[in-house]
Amino acid sequence: MKTIILAFILSITIHILFLYNYKLEKKEEKVEKTFDKKAKDNKSTITYVKLTKPKPIVKEVVKPKEQVVQKEYKKELKKVPKKIEPQKKEKKPIIPIKKEAKKQIQKEEQNFKKVQEEIKPQERRKSVDKKSLENFLLSEPVLDKELLDEVTKSYIKLYGEEYNKFTKVQKAFLQNSLKKIGEITQRYLYEKGYPRIAVRTGQQGVNVVEFFLYPNGDIKDLKIINSSSYATLDKNTIETIEIAYKDYPRPKEVTKIRIYVYYRLY
């Protein structure tokens, strides 16, 4: 009996398990079917679209009201020919001049004419005085350069074009006195003696000296224009002229003097 009962229980349990597995399999099938449907529904569909060029956006320019108004106003305006009317000149009232005022004006005009007449001869006198002064100072005439001796010509060449700017009195003095001034300077140079250092070293050369000679015999702005290339000789030249100028001839006007000073060993 026991065996029969056990066998019965086993058969029942086996049937129950079989039914349970069967139900599980069906549920799995249903789940798979629902999943497949959802997958089919979720598939992306591709649609092809034709692209066209975008049309340019034209912005409407909003004109200000003032411009529109001005244009409308200009259209309304019409050219009107201008009529130029001649201006009438106002006539100034003529103020009558009294007899006394007329007499005063006439007197002033007469006085002005007299003053002018007096000034003219004074100006003429001044020009005459200058000429007479020059003539008085010119004791000797101004000669042409070609008529001068060679020494004076060599001195005048030192001035260049500046010589033409001098007055007649200055030119006459230079023509007559440059040679004398050079001779006096050389005489004082020999009397003073040749510098010892220059003798030992055998220094020789020529200086060109410039200074202003005044009517009272003074000299100013003494300087060497052209050096002998030896400092001892240049210094000796200035020292000699500072002594010798007392014997120079005196001009009637302040005159620029340029002369040569020679250094030669014999």
Task: Give a quick summary of the entry.
It is found in: Membrane. The chain contains seven helices and three strands, in the order ααααααββαβ. It has 266 residues and is mostly helical.
List keywords for this structure.
TonB C-terminal domain-containing protein; TonB/TolA_C; 7 helices; coiled coil; single chain; 3-stranded antiparallel beta sheet; transmembrane; Fusion Protein Consisting Of Minor Coat Protein, Glycine Rich Linker, Tola, And A His Tag, Chain: A, Domain 2
Work out the radius of gyration: 66 Å
In the CATH scheme, what's the topology name of the domain at 145-263? Fusion Protein Consisting Of Minor Coat Protein, Glycine Rich Linker, Tola, And A His Tag, Chain: A, Domain 2
Query: Main β-sheet, in a few words?
Result: 3 strands, antiparallel
Average pLDDT taken over every residue: 78
Overall 3D shape: elongated
Membrane topology: Single-pass membrane protein
GO cellular component, one term: membrane
GO biological process, one term: transmembrane transport
Pfam families: TonB_C
Structure characterization notes:
With 266 residues, this protein is mostly helical. Helix content is 55%, strand content 10%. The protein is built from seven helices and three strands, in the order ααααααββαβ. The chain has helices spanning 2-42, 65-76, 99-137, 150-157, 168-192, 196-201, 231-244; strands at residues 205-213, 219-226, 255-263. It has a three-stranded antiparallel beta sheet. β1 (205-213) and β2 (219-226) form a beta hairpin. α4 (150-157) crosses α5 (168-192) and α5 (168-192) crosses α7 (231-244). It is elongated, with a radius of gyration of 66 Å.
